[in-house]
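protein under study:
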Amino acid sequence: MADEQGVIERRQYERITAQFTVAFHLVETGDAERMSRPGGEYKDITVAHAGTKMVKDVMTVVTENISLGGLKLVTPKPIKEGSTLGLELQLPGLPLPIKALAVVVRSEIAPNATGKHTAGVRFIAINKDDVAKVERYIALVKRAEIEKRNSKP
C-alpha cells in the first residue's frame, strides 16, 4: 500500500511503537541453524549462559517498535546485518520473558540519537504461544491508542 508520499510499504506485519527491554546475545552460525530447526534449542538458551561456547556478549537494550514479524532495537553500537541473535523480550505485564531467535535485516545509525544505532530484526524461531502473547500485546497497545484518541475533545 502506498503512503501519502507515494512510498510502498513492503512489511508483512503492522508495526507499533513500543519501548521495552530486550536482552540479546550473538549466536554462532552453526548453532543458529541447529537451534532454529523445528524442536530447536533456541528457547533453552538464556542470558544466563553468557560466556559459554554458544553465547557471546550479552547486551540489554530497548526496542523502538515491534510487529509479529520482528522488532527494532536501539543499540549503543552497530550490529552486523545477517547476524543471528538470541532474544529475551520482556513485554510489559508478562512475568517471564519471551525467547526467540532473530536475524538482523537492517543496521543503521539512529537518526535522532547521538551515538546510537538501530537494528531491525526478523524472528526466525519463536514459540506459537509466544507469538500469541506478542499479538495480544500489540492489540492492547493499539486499543489504548484508539481509546486515547477518542477521549480527546
